[in-house]
Specification:
Length: 326
């Protein structure tokens, strides 16, 4: 048989495959999420997310110190607290576990650690909704007011990057305006621009105790049947002053990531969410896949779609096991 093109030639051995490899996971673009709670000496593993903990500020600072030795320098903090009420007062209280953690981390590591914090109310409202309820519905503008207060408190504590994950309308513009008015011109906003109402958040809600008591999040998070709507959200967040735009979840929304890549010139992030993490753990624990290979396939797919920044619970395991070098 005479064949002029034999693509298999470039797949013959590892060196050749490496030579022609087009896409690589950008290690410097990976962010490790953490859950911070009240109290001291607390470090509880989250049942549904093996290897991920809910921990008090003292323990968190120690964990991040250890993770830094592995090579983790960018972190995203989520708060967990029992102090919840209709107005989410703890969200911007000085005694909020995330705000306390940010202060400690800034003090200890300064510019050697890039500290991002989640900006949302679901960990602080009695209802578990991402905004303030008025007459049984999430009130957009009241919620934005509190989100601005929370953002300012985090910026004052020294937070490098804010991640508004609430999906209220106009919050990016309002937060940017608040930061500018108070002189926080260096605070980065990484907007959860296209955040879909997803079943893949299950393990996170268990970790953050943020399952809404009643109803669901479909009145503010996006409908997974839509994609042009994501591009509309993208143009709004860009105009309102976002520095980075995010798509969430990642693996079932690769088309949205690539739409973002084509439609913006600012960095695109993707959130490899808790359900995607748990699925990998379940598959590997039952021997259905090799963990490092499965994780790198997932993260490479997200990279190929166009994300240069990926939030992933797998980062610690990747560095510990050298899976990025395999
Ligand atoms: C809350 C929030 C959620 C996640 C990040 N911020 C869950 C939700 O919207 O219910 C999900 C993260 C994950 O699943 O890993 N605003
Ligand atoms: Zn929320």
């Amino acid at each position: 048989m005479t064949i002029s093109h034999r693509p298999r030639r470039l797949r013959r051995n590892q060196l050749i495959r490496d030579l022609v490899a087009e896409h690589h996971v950008h290690l410097d673009g990976l962010i490790q999420p953490y859950f911070v709670c009240d109290g001291t000496g607390v470090r509880d593993e989250i049942n549904t997310m093996p290897g991920i903990h809910r921990e008090s500020v003292d323990s968190l600072v120690e964990s991040i110190g250890n993770d830094r030795k592995l090579g983790i320098s960018k972190v995203m903090l989520f708060g967990v607290t029992d102090r919840r009420d209709p107005m989410a007062a703890t969200a911007w209280d000085d005694d909020n576990p995330v705000i306390r953690a940010v202060r400690k981390l800034e003090d200890k590591f300064g510019d050697d650690a890039h500290v991002c914090a989640d900006v949302c109310l679901c960990a602080y409202t009695d209802t578990g909704h991402c905004g303030i309820m008025v007459d049984g519905v999430v009130d957009n503008d009241k919620s934005v007011d509190i989100l601005c207060k929370m953002s300012l408190a985090l910026a004052k504590a020294g937070c490098d990057c804010l991640g508004p994950s609430d999906m209220m309308d106009g919050r990016i513009g309002a937060i940017r305006k608040t930061l500018e008015a108070e002189g926080y011109t260096d605070t980065i906003i990484m907007a959860y621009t296209a955040k879909y109402a997803s079943s893949y958040y299950g393990p996170f809600r268990e970790a953050a105790c943020s399952t809404p008591g009643e109803g669901d999040r479909k009145g503010y998070q996006m409908d997974f049947r839509n994609c042009t709507e994501a591009v509309h959200e993208l143009s709004l967040d860009e105009l309102e002053g976002a520095d980075i735009v995010m798509v969430k979840p990642a693996l079932t929304y690769l088309d949205i990531i690539s739409d973002f890549k084509r439609n913006t010139s600012i960095p695109v992030a993707a959130y490899n969410v808790s359900g995607e993490y748990a699925a990998v753990k379940l598959m590997t624990q039952t021997g259905l896949a090799e963990e490092g290979a499965l994780i790198m396939e997932n993260l490479t797919a997200i990279t190929r779609a166009g994300a240069t920044i990926i939030l992933t619970y797998h980062l610690r395991d990747i560095l510990k096991n050298g899976w990025h070098q395999a």
